[in-house]
Design goal:
Blueprint: E1 3-10, H1 17-30, E2 34-41, H2 48-52, E3 58-63, H3 69-79, E4 84-87, H4 99-109, E5 113-117, H5 125-141, E6 154-157, H6 174-180, E7 185-189, H7 204-223, H8 227-254, H9 264-295, E8 304-310
Parallel strand pairs: 1-2, 1-4, 2-3, 5-7
Antiparallel strand pairs: 3-8, 4-6, 5-6
Helix pairs in contact: 5-7, 8-9
Length: about 325
């Protein structure tokens, strides 16, 4: 018997939560899982809360304010008690019927993570176009080995999240974050259904935040434990350029030319030297901050208003 926690972040999904809960429950019961269903409400303003409290079994977590999908996913993961954690969207586009196949694949291949791959997406053209562009950038910068990082349907071994805190739009890059830590990642083709009720929460702001987080993960992957190698290296390059401009300035001086007419070389010398020194100092400061980061507790970006649990039908 497999023990699974199904984590679903939701925000104003009053038309989807009841049916999604029924489908998840049905799949878990048919496959004889020991399971818990965790709905994390990211500050909904419709009837989502009321409907969720009428479902069973459920662990309903409500955040105090709308903190974003990543915060909701992080809260759900931290509340999960079972051996395997399954994440999926609350809009009903992920199909719970894919869970047994994904779980079997994870166990058979001995992966730590299996990510869903929506080969046949049911989104509009613009959303698919933006997603493909983001996937291309992710491949270049992060290269986590999967085709569809935006698919929320994923299965993780619980130990993957020991000491992991998620921020910004990082829920899209969890496989990349875990791969950096040495966990193995697999991919499984899943169904993708059209949204029946409600509107997508994806917009240009989330796209911009996702790009910034992608840069952050790239930096973390390459230089998290050695930022001085990047910033110090750039600083040395600027110091070399400053030295070259300094030689240029001296040669102009000894040729007898008026420096008032050749002001650019000395100005470049000063600029490059100052920037080079600053970059080197920033590199040293970053080294110190990284050591502090690894030695202290990192505060969550959200607060939980309530946790409401119902374990059996009445």
């Amino acid at each position: 018997m497999y023990h699974v926690s199904v984590v679903v972040p939701i925000y104003n999904e009053e038309g989807n939560v009841a049916e999604l809960h029924r489908e998840i429950k049905e799949v878990c019961m048919q496959n004889h899982y020991k399971y818990e269903i965790i709905f994390v409400d990211d500050g909904s303003t419709d009837k989502t809360q009321e409907i969720c409290k009428g479902l069973s079994p459920i662990k309903y977590i409500r955040l105090r304010r709308n903190s974003g999908q990543t915060a909701a996913v992080d809260a759900g993961i931290k509340a999960a008690q079972m051996d395997y954690i399954i994440t999926m969207d609350g809009d009903g586009q992920n199909d719970p019927a894919d869970i047994p196949g994904m779980l079997a694949y994870l166990i058979e291949m001995d992966y730590d993570v299996v990510s869903g791959w929506r080969k046949d997406r049911k989104d509009n053209f613009m959303k698919r176009f933006i997603s493909r562009g983001a996937n291309l950038l992710r491949y270049i910068l992060v290269h986590d080995g999967i085709h569809d990082s935006g698919c929320s349907l994923k299965i993780y071994k619980k130990e993957c999240f020991k000491g992991v805190n998620l921020y910004g739009e990082q829920h899209r890059f969890i496989p990349a974050i875990l791969k950096i830590k040495g966990y193995t990642i697999g991919e499984y083709v899943v169904h993708h259904r059209p949204r029946i009720w409600g509107k997508t929460k994806y917009n240009w702001k989330r796209m911009f935040k996702g790009f910034v987080d992608m840069i952050s993960i790239w930096f973390w992957n390459k230089y998290a434990t050695r930022p001085l190698h990047l910033l110090g290296g750039v600083g040395i390059l600027f110091l070399i350029l400053g030295g070259m401009c300094g030689i240029w300035s001296v040669s102009i001086f000894f040729t007898g030319a008026k420096m008032s007419r050749n002001i650019m070389p000395p100005m470049l010398t000063v600029f490059f030297v100052i920037v080079g020194i600053l970059m080197f100092i920033f590199g040293l400061m970053s080294e110190i901050l990284i050591k502090i980061y690894y030695g202290v507790h990192v505060e969550n970006s959200y607060t939980i208003k309530e946790i409401w649990e119902k374990t059996e039908d009445f």
